[in-house]
Write a structure and sequence with these properties.
eight-stranded mixed sheet; single chain; elongated
């Protein structure tokens, strides 16, 4: 299988650049940007995603860092960029891989056997112990149907476990107290494993929660959707198998940095996207879509010679906490940081139930502005959609994707985001279409984030947006920084969070 994949990749690498060959030439800026946008086609971006999907399928349905799937993704991107004429650097760094050897399992073994879907119906909790347990499920003070407003006290007091049978699996409901308290009380009562299920009110139904349960928890702990918890609680005598084959080890992953051989090196325009996926899936929307859009723009831009140096970053380790972009920026000198005019970030640009989200650079929507110049980047993206007769909306610029390291260094930033695990509203459907009441990306961080999880319209439009802004700033950054960086910058003075770009990854305490 590996040799067949290698031949397919080689063919893709050799064929894709054929239309890019020829001497780079200088155009009037407006004409060059128009040509660039016309050359960047959604169908060509989709071909990159098809290759990444193929890589994932051939390597355990994942392109997570520290695996063959990620290394092949790295090689695909780096090879195409070298053939297009860029100076390409592959930057290695070590990280702590936290995952599993085999996918986690949650199964009802009696009275009616049933397997639940990893990620969409249940997730392992980060601080959970490894282990395999088959035992009766014992609901602990659960409230079904759930109260109209959050307020379940399930598992919050040691007395809730007064009649708990040691060795059973404790089933507790989200609500009121910290997750850590619920788990500690269950462990003290002798639970062999703990299943926490979402409480059940609107906005508190999915399995996409990352509970903070403390440290050194001695038993497996899973979090499930409300529907799964309700089902497990419904029938007395239910027996469940939980299994978490946990793996923690040091691995190596890589950034790919491609820089033009032309342009003003004192005024660098950067664009980037993370290249890695999570372990459960191949990550074709998150974030093959952003990486594919940036890659195609880079390949087409190679036919032009704009005034400014252009640099593209394909980041590793994003799904483990923005590691690649942090590593890259941390290893720049102060002068090298000052030479970066702006950074554009693209993380999930083709969600199947999309909105056109633009990072809130001026902070007027969420109160978290970027460094000086970020407001101008936001406006330029907004103007792009307006010119297409489309509407955009602000996306919170809070530091949950790879732009964080750049804006923390005072570098103006911006970018696009079409949505992850949050629920699309009826008002948004009236503007962008799609389906109300479900997630922007129902396959976010899941095995189903494959080539089938891409909206072609969003991919095409947003790839044009990338081309428009990268092309415009490659010729002229005056709207952002007055033509060039003039010295070290200061940050905007706003505290920002850490973690991968979306709310699912934020640890929730209760």
């Amino acid at each position: 299988m590996r040799s067949r994949l290698g031949k397919g990749l080689l063919a893709a690498v050799l064929v894709a650049p054929l239309t890019l060959t020829g001497t780079a030439h200088a155009d009037a800026p407006a004409n060059a940007v128009r040509k660039l946008v016309n050359a960047v086609k959604g169908e060509n971006v989709k071909r990159h995603l098809q290759v990444l999907d193929l890589i994932g399928k051939a390597n355990g349905n994942t392109r997570v860092d520290g695996t063959r799937g990620y290394e092949l993704s790295r090689d695909y991107v780096a090879t195409l960029l070298r053939l297009a004429g860029y100076k390409v650097t592959v930057q290695p760094f070590e990280f702590e891989f936290e995952g599993y050897k085999t996918p986690p399992v949650l199964q009802r073994t009696a009275p009616e056997p049933k397997s639940f879907a990893h990620v969409t119906e249940f997730t392992e909790v980060d601080a959970s112990a490894a282990g395999t347990v088959t035992a009766p499920v014992q609901p602990v003070d659960v409230v079904l149907p759930p109260p109209a407003t959050p307020g379940s006290t399930s598992g919050c007091e040691a007395s809730d476990f007064a009649n708990f049978t040691r060795g059973n699996i404790a089933l507790v409901q989200r609500g009121t107290c910290n997750f850590a308290d619920k788990v500690a009380n269950a462990v003290a009562a002798g639970a062999s494993a703990v299943i926490i299920f979402n409480e059940g009110q609107p906005g508190r139904t999915t399995a996409r929660v990352n509970p903070g349960i403390g440290e050194n928890v001695p038993v497996p702990v899973f979090f499930t959707s409300f529907a799964v918890g309700d089902e497990l609680a419904a029938k007395p005598g239910t027996t469940v198998k939980v299994s978490f084959d946990k793996l923690v080890e040091t691995r190596t992953t890589y950034n790919v940095i491609a820089e033009s051989r032309w342009g003003d090196g004192d005024n660098v325009v950067m664009a980037g996207a993370h290249l890695d996926s999570v372990q459960p899936g191949p990550g074709i929307n998150d974030n093959g879509s952003g990486a594919g859009g940036v890659l195609e723009v880079a390949l087409r831009l190679a036919a032009h010679r704009p005034a400014n140096k252009v640099r593209f970053g394909f980041w590793g380790g994003e799904e483990f906490g923005l590691l690649g972009s942090n590593h890259y920026v941390a290893n720049l000198t102060e002068q090298e940081k000052a030479n970066i005019a702006l950074y554009l970030n693209f993380d999930m640009i083709a969600s199947p139930n999309f909105t056109y989200g633009v990072y809130d650079g001026d902070g007027d929507a969420f109160g978290v502005p970027g460094p000086e110049g970020s407001a101008q980047v936001e406006k330029a993206f907004q103007d792009f959609y307006t010119a297409r007769g489309l509407r955009s909306k602000p996306s919170e610029f809070d530091g949950r994707s790879d732009y964080k390291a750049f804006i923390d260094a005072g570098i103006p930033g911006g970018g696009l985001f079409t949505g992850a695990e949050k629920i699309k509203t009826a008002e948004e459907v009236a503007i962008w279409g799609g389906t109300a009441g479900i997630e922007y990306d129902p396959c976010y961080h899941a095995p189903c984030d494959t080539i089938k999880n891409i909206d072609d319209t969003a991919l095409d439009v947003n790839s044009d947006a990338i081309a428009t802004l990268v092309g415009t700033y490659a010729f002229d950054t005056s709207a952002v920084n007055g033509l060039r960086a003039t010295g070290p910058r200061t940050t905007a003075g706003v505290a920002r969070t850490t973690g991968d770009g979306h709310d699912h990854d934020k640890v929730e305490l209760s």
